[in-house]
Amino acid sequence: MQPRDLSDHVAYQAGRGIEEVARELGRDPSEFVKLASNENPHGPSPAATEAIRETASSVSSYPKAAHADLVAAIADRWDVADEQVWLANGGDGAIDYLHRATIEPGDSILVPTPGFAYYGMSARFHHGDVAEYGLSRADDFAQTADGVLEHYDGERIVWLTTPHNPTGSTMALEEIERLAAATDEETLIVVDEAYGEFADRESALALIEGRDGYDSRDDVAVLRTFSKAYGLAGLRLGYAVVPGEWGEAYARVNTPFAASELACRAGLAAIEDGDHVERTVETARESRERMRESIDAHVWPSEGNFVLVDVGDAGAVAEEMQERGVIVRDCSSFGLPGCIRITCGTDAETGRAIETCNDVLAALELDADSRRESEAEVPDT
Fold first, then answer.
1. Contact 254/93 with Cβ under 8 angstroms?
2. Closest Cα to residue 250, out of 67, 87, 71, 73?
3. What is each CA distance from 229 to 56, 186, 271, 304, 369, in whole angstroms?
4. Any idea where the Aminotransferase class I/classII large domain is (predicted)?
5. Measured distance between the N- and C-terminal CA atoms of the chain, rounded to whole angstroms
6. Which of 36, 170, 242, 279 has its CA 20 to 30 A from that of 228?
7. In the predicted model, is pLDDT for residue 131 greater than 60?
């Protein structure tokens, strides 16, 4: 017996961890810094850490109360009804819920390329098809309604990532509103704001609730996560905020107790820890500006907690930086083989990343010059 045909499914490639790299190279993990997965350089919210300690003895119980409490806290944070918050096991869990609630076999979704592979993976799990719209390197990966509509063909869901991973670009709220107005009545626009805290832009939640001069819409949903700004990536906690009319669907697509007791209690503490989020956001802003100013290669502007760097040969640069103790993301898996992505780290980590990247770029250029000189000296035969 075999599983169903999964040949059109692409496996998600996660960033490599310090322990994994250290074992492979036979070195001490303390020699490395990981700037490959857009994790919080300050770790989890201290309040969340304390909540985990206090909650540990109660994990024998199902997290029904904790789940309800966190949903209420998120709803209060965004001034929406509890029923509009779909709590999930990470942002990818929320992606699955939205696909379960929306996609019929044969329906399609429209996703950005480059982009997050799990949008398409999840749709295919639910027997949907996947179409793509491109973000152009020539246009600095600008995101516009027209750029999406050029490829739109009545898809059931259109995915926007703003800030976009791995480029850091954003789509203006006016453009999202224009896109929603131009697509079919049965098309849902989902705005993935996993990096929303790092952007100096208003959340697309204003479109759902009709705030700040915008008309309320029933065809927009927003995705958020506790993994980045709150530093809870290891707990897997995320959520979607959906239109009010969608509220009842959650009970029919949700897995029982989707988020664990520890995750919920940590999330409750983290959402109140504004100091930790503020510190994290400020660190990211300083780090990305410093990298833009100091790396000896083109660095695109970013509103995430990372920057995209044009290095020519991502595989070679990422491998050599890793050898020198700095783990970054080779963006070949995103379809950008000339680029690496560097997570914003602490002041010391950012300095090390800049120095290492510049040294590697200089060394590779020197090697290339030497090869060219050697080839020029070979006589014709």
1. no
2. 87
3. 23, 33, 10, 10, 42
4. 31-355
5. 61
6. 242
7. yes
Average pLDDT of the chain is 93
| Interatomic CA distance for residues 340 and 54, integer angstroms | 40
Q: Is-contact 232 48, C-beta < 8 A?
A: yes
Distance in angstroms (rounded) separating the CA atoms of residues 33 and 54: 30
Separation between Cα atoms, residue 274 and residue 147, nearest integer Å: 36
Beta-bridge partner residues of 329: 341
Provide the residue type at 174 as one letter: E
Q: Strands of 339-343's sheet, edge to edge?
A: 298-299, 306-310, 339-343, 329-330
pLDDT for the residue numbered 34: 97
pLDDT at 2: 76
Query: Domains in the chain, please, with CATH?
Result: 18-43+274-367 (3.90.1150.10), 46-270 (3.40.640.10)
Q: How far apart are CA 200 and CA 302, in angstroms?
A: 11
Residue 158: in which H helix or E strand, if any?
strand 157-161
Helix axes 274-294, 347-377, angle to 10 degrees: 20
> For 152-175, what is each residue's pLDDT tens digit?
999 999 999 999 999 999 999 999
